[in-house]
């Protein structure tokens, strides 16, 4: 989202830190789908035998993941 420029606006140190915090949170949020999908596949397959992996596949909420 682009915001219009506000000419003459001066931010103090606390405001600049808050803006940087918001930017960091937005950047981390953009990585969330990757972490969610990766975590799901690790949970299904990592260290599990065929029977446990099959159960995990069936019990996974694929609609939520999509």
Structural commentary:
- The protein is built from three helices and no strands.
- The protein has 66 residues and is mainly α.
- It has one domain (13-65).
Q: Layout of helices and strands, plus pairs?
A:
Blueprint: H1 13-45, H2 50-59, H3 62-65
Note the beta-strand portion.
under 5%
- What profile does the largest beta sheet have? none
Which word captures the global form? rod-shaped
Structural class, from helix and strand content?
mainly alpha
Number of helices: 3
| Order of secondary-structure elements | HHH
Total beta-strand segments: 0
> Uncertain runs with pLDDT below 50, 5 residues or more?
none
Gyration radius from CA atoms, angstroms: 21 Å
Q: Quick check: average pLDDT?
A: 83
Q: In whole angstroms, how far apart are the ends?
A: 25 Å
- As for the number of domains, it is 1
What is the subunit organization of this protein?
single chain
Helix content: over 70%
Briefly characterize the structure.
This protein has 3 helices and no strands.
Which tags fit this structure?
rod-shaped; 66 residues; mainly alpha
